[in-house]
Specification:
2 domains, 10 helices, binds adenosine-5'-triphosphate, 40% helix, binds magnesium ion, Rossmann fold
Length: 248
């Protein structure tokens, strides 16, 4: 359903994406892994249509989204929702305002229906009675859950998570991983999880793509990832620094 073809993106002389090719299967969870600064968030922003590539295309059900006008893109975006790295909640709004923002701005739902949907989505992510709190009053784990509630409120077909477990203790991280799996099954969505947390990959993903030097260096199932003896991939998965290895 999502096909990324020969995607290139540079920021001045920083060549971040150097011909990314990747197909993301419908109804599955694909993890995109890679070291910090490798371009994972940049890649997600291209899938969402929030960034324009220098060359190449992201096809969504056969349509090249990177070529669409602002107006056309709006209807495509309704099918997708992103849980941003660091939650990205609006501090000036209540939790309720944050979760309902897409519904207020992009649907003609009535206030009462929106409030009902907001409460349902908060309940779904395990949060009760916090509608009137401000984001500043929430813990890091709660903020991630609110960000997930905001994403599912739009009933998307594609859910993109950027580092959903980063900064959480292992128990909170695992409860977010379980939530990703449960939502996947319940909503029958296509999920993309960007992460450098290998535990999160093992718990949530069917398929894994490793972004390295601006390209997909490896792709395969979680089992194929474990069995691979590719040295660059192994070093990443096992957290070995190339410099440390040379010194050893
Ligand atoms: N808007 C931008 N303008 C200029 N450079 C950018 C912009 N966005 C990203 N970059 C650069 O692109 C590279 C990849 O950034 P990106 O945020 O995609 O990394 P990442 O893989 O998500 O890292 P992390 O795991 O730390 O989140 C970095 O060198 C970054 O500085
Ligand atoms: Mg990132």
């Amino acid at each position: 359903m999502i096909e990324i073809k020969r995607l290139h993106k540079s920021f001045e002389d920083n060549e971040v994406l150097r011909g990314v090719d990747l197909t993301i299967g419908k109804g599955h969870t694909t993890a995109i892994i890679g070291s910090s600064g490798s371009g994972k968030s940049v890649l997600l922003k291209h899938i969402m249509g929030l960034m324009k590539p220098d060359a190449g295309c992201v096809f969504l059900n056969g349509t090249c989204v990177t070529d669409l006008s602002y107006h056309e893109l709006k209807s495509v975006r309704k099918k997708m929702a992103m849980v941003f790295q660091g939650a990205a909640l609006f501090d000036s709004m209540t939790v309720s305002g944050n979760v309902g923002i897409g519904l207020y701005n992009h649907t003609d739902m009535k206030e009462k229906e929106i409030r009902k949907r907001v409460t349902e989505c908060l309940e779904r992510v395990g949060l009760h009675g916090i509608e009137q709190l401000s984001p500043a009053e929430l813990s890091g784990g709660m903020k991630k859950r609110v960000a997930i509630a905001r994403a599912i409120a739009m009933k998307p077909q594609i859910l993109l998570y950027d580092e959903p477990t980063t900064g959480l203790d292992p128990i909170r991280a695992n409860s977010i991983n379980d939530l990703i799996v449960d939502l996947q099954e319940e909503m029958d969505v296509t999920s993309i999880v960007v992460t450098h947390d290998m535990n999160s990959v093992e718990r949530t993903a069917d398929y894994v793509a490793f972004l390295h030097n601006g390209q997909i260096h490896f792709e395969g199932t979680v089992e194929e990832l474990s069995a691979s003896d590719d040295i660059v991939l192994r070093n990443f998965v096992e957290g070995v620094d190339e410099v440390d290895k040379i010194a050893a």
